[in-house]
Each structure stands twice: as structure tokens, then as C-alpha cells.
Design goal:
alpha/beta; 4-stranded parallel sheet; about 40% helix
Amino acid sequence: KVGVPFSINSRVEKMTGNFCHRAADANCDTIWFGIESGDYQFRKTMLGRKMTNDQIILAAKNCHDAGINRLTFNMVGMPFEKKEQMMQTLRLNETIAPEFFYFFTYIPLKGTKLFEIARENDLLIDESRQKVHYLDDYDHGFSLNIREHPQGMSNNDFNDVCQTMKRFQDANNRLSH
């Protein structure tokens, strides 16, 4: 009733056509939502996020159809994530074409399942070597916040995909606020 534009965070599972149209009617201009990984199996088993890629695409379409901007959150460089899985994250975002695309380098946070996985598999590095924000000195390259290991990806592969994601972000982000 106030008429002031606002943004919200939502879960893909809640972003039905009805929900998005009601949000737009209330003057919601942007919905922020987490994709985290474009690989369904990885997202489900490692992150406990059970939404399918089809559900993500439909939720993004519902927002678009209601005239609401989409801002996606994505996480990269997680324990046992492979280069192809990171590329799936990028391709899913290319399909959605959100008005704003964010990707963040995984940071091991105590108390999370992924932290325990990293600890149990000796993947943790000294916290002083971790980059807390992905824009920290990205011109000099992206690096993993965990140890390289045979079941994951190399720092070189990680940097290559992150540079591709950064180019997508720079070329496609269309929100001015």
C-alpha cells in the first residue's frame, strides 16, 4: 500500500506465478534467490537443496513474466566440485539470463556440512590464505579456498571458469541499483 519499490529473498520452490504476480502488485522490483550449483545431484547431495533445474528455470520465468528482476546467488569452488559442474552453473544462469548474476568462492564455515566434508578430507587451508570476497583482487586471478585434490579441480581450472563467469557477469548484469 505504500508503493515503495522493494526487493526480497525467496526460495525457488515458493516462486510460483501467483506469488510473483502478487509480489509485483505490491511493488517488488527484484527477487534474489540462490541457485548455488547448476548440477542438480551436487546441489542435492552436498548442499541439501532439492529443487530441480526445471524448477529453477520456471521460477525465473515466473519472475520475468511478472516484471520482476532476478538476482541469482551461486557458489563455486566447493569440496569435490569439478570444472564441468561449475560450467553447468554458468550454463543454467545463461539459460535464465538473470538481470544480476552473483557468484562467490566457497568459504569453509564452521558448523556447515561442507566444512565438515572439507575437514574430514583434509581440504582446509589456513584461513589467512582464504579470499573472503570474490572481488578481492580478482584482477590477479581467482583461487580456491580449499586444497587442490584429485577428486576436485585445479586452481588453474577454477580460475579459468571464474574468469568466464566474471565476463558473463560484467556483460550481462543489468541492474542499476
